[in-house]
């Protein structure tokens, strides 16, 4: 397959847009996926650049090198072993840079690989950095990378304000179809963060492109996001984090494998396939997670095989899977108990879904069509706002 050549925002910044950071004191928000086409890490590139004064690094969830496996373990403030620079953790006692962290900086560069789903914390680390920059008079530069599941398709319910959390701060849908630079512009203007923001777009990227249709390097953006396939199914199966079923953490196919000890895999797969959901086949299987939910325990379930990703609708597919598991195994099925992302007073599934209505619809026996109809108006309104911030 011929892949489209693109220039990443980081590369464009260094080759064409260095002015805003030339001789400035720079902080960098990054992780292991912050690499150029040669797979060199942004921290190393900026640290060695003669015209850039890199003074501090900031790490998101899972850390700057992606070494923290579990999705709820805080990372420590430490020192980068390669550059010797301080690493301020933004997934610690604070999610937002403090005045002390920013005191010796002029500019904060944000260069992260997103996965195209609202329920992923990197976009909110970016938003928190933008808020802190506004508060303490710093500039933010966001370097763009591809939306790995394309920038065209939009699906799912729009987050309700009452369910805001670190896995959803703004009224955007589950699959938003935007890049981080586009989200940054929307957060800054439409959602009124109002910091001094500059976005550095890519060259050559088109909205229809999936990550593996470009020559951009793929490095796991988080420990349970190993492939583009993982990112493709994630907007649906991430909802299983709000249940006691395994979403495949502790296996080599996180978010593609779903199951629990009480599930009859053949029956579950047969009834899922009977729903005739577009672009997907459910294969019955047995798996044994090595850690996390049901660690070391034999689970029956399914592997999601995306047969046609252009037709596949991950959000409604994931919700169909949750609904059927609830309907078939009501005596054993359990929603996850709080907390989730340090939210102690709400059902974790509601926090993930960004609404009470989906869990209530599942419990009431409502159809998938009713769920989709319930979010249509808000989704249509979002699409109109989204158009104002598309950069490609």
Give an overview of the whole structure.
The protein folds into two domains: 9-213, Rossmann fold, CATH 3.40.50.12170; 228-355, Aspartate Aminotransferase, domain 1. The protein has helices at 9-16, 42-48, 99-102, 122-136, 180-189, 228-237, 265-273, 314-328, 348-353, 357-364, 368-387, and strands at 25-29, 53-59, 78-79, 86-89, 107-110, 139-143, 155-158, 173-175, 196-200, 257-260, 280-287, 299-306. By secondary structure, it is α/β, with parallel strands linked by helices. The protein contains eleven helices and twelve strands. A seven-stranded mixed sheet has the order 3-4-2-1-5-6-9, with helices on both faces. The chain has a three-stranded antiparallel sheet with strand order 10-12-11. The model has no long low-confidence stretch (mean pLDDT 95). Strand 1, helix 2 and strand 2 form a beta-alpha-beta unit.
Rounded mean pLDDT is: 95
List how many beta strands DSSP finds: 12
Helix content: 25-40%
Using only C-alpha atoms, the radius of gyration works out to: 21 Å
| CATH-defined fold name of the largest domain | Rossmann fold
Question: Within the largest sheet, what's the order of strands?
Answer: 3-4-2-1-5-6-9
Strand content: 15-25%
What's the end-to-end separation, in Å?
Answer: 23 Å
**What's the overall geometry?**
globular
CATH architecture of the largest domain: 3-Layer(aba) Sandwich
In the predicted model, the low-confidence regions spanning at least 5 consecutive residues are none
Quick tags:
3-stranded antiparallel beta sheet; 2 domains; 392 residues; alpha/beta; 7-stranded mixed beta sheet; globular; Aspartate Aminotransferase, domain 1; Rossmann fold; 11 helices; single chain
